[in-house]
Amino acid sequence: MPVTTCVFDAYGTLFDVAAAARIAAEQPGQEHLAKVWPRLAADWRTKQLQYTWLRAVTGEHIPFWQVTQDGLDWAMEASGLDDPVLRETLLALYWELPAYPEVPEMLKALKDNGYSTAILSNGSPDMLDGAVDFADIRALLDAVLSVEDVGIFKPAAKVYDMVGTRFGTTPEQVLFVSSNGWDAAAAAGYGFQTVWVNRAGEPQDRLAARPGHVLSDLSTVPELAKAL
């Protein structure tokens, strides 16, 4: 059954999550941050994800924005940064994450080829709206789906169920794209056709399922969708 719908994770897939720390480090007076921002960005993202998994397991769901703040607080402490003003700067920048350069053209190609397109994200609706509008890609998306509608984070099956509910698709008709190997693997186990966007060249996670395809960026997603 051919693919009709292409669904994307948001943070790290369409939007560059390291940009907040990188941009803040370029501001005057941030010499210490300039030395440690790669570690801060990596720790922030790691803790953000770990906290979603732990809350999904324990059933203690909170909005992704709170998880994002909690992850930043851990990362700042780990890097020896005790600066409330910097904290607010980093959080404000998280609402203005740039899309990766190939994203607008890739989404336009999918739409021109007749595919439905959507975001499926752990992000809160207001966070996702801010990111989509800042990147100016709303016209290229048919839906922006947030886990807040089901009250649990990925990789819970309830999250992936949202795609079929919204588009009336079977799993085989969906190409799901994520920069998180665990997310692409879980979606593959669910039944989606999947792409792991492995920008960093990392090893595959040892999980029950594996992503169907591995790409280094998003530019060839339209060609892959046609071939499936």
CATH-scheme architecture of the largest domain = 3-Layer(aba) Sandwich
Overall mean pLDDT = 97
Strand order of the largest sheet: 3-2-1-4-5-6
Number of domains: 2
Output the structural class. Answer: alpha/beta
Strand content: 5-15%
Main β-sheet: number of strands, strand sense, barrel status?
6 strands, parallel
Might you state the CATH topology name of the largest domain? Rossmann fold
What is the percent of helical residues? 40-55%
How large is the count of helical segments?
Answer: 9
Overall strand count = 6
- Write the element-wise H/E pattern from the N-terminal end onward: EHHHHHEHEHEHEEH
Oligomeric grouping of the chains = single chain
The radius of gyration computed from the alpha-carbon positions, rounded to a whole number of angstroms, is 17 Å
CATH C-level class of the largest domain is Alpha Beta
Low-confidence stretches: none
How does the overall form come out from the CA principal axes? globular
CATH superfamily of the largest domain: HAD superfamily/HAD-like
Describe the overall structure.
The protein is of the alpha/beta class. The protein has 2 domains: 141 residues, HAD superfamily/HAD-like (Rossmann fold), CATH 3.40.50.1000; 76 residues, DNA polymerase, domain 1 (Orthogonal Bundle), CATH 1.10.150.240. The chain contains 9 helices and 6 strands. A 6-stranded parallel beta sheet has the order 3-2-1-4-5-6, with helices on both faces. Helix 1 crosses helix 4. The longest helix is centred in the first third of the chain and has 28 residues. The termini are close together. The mean pLDDT is 97.
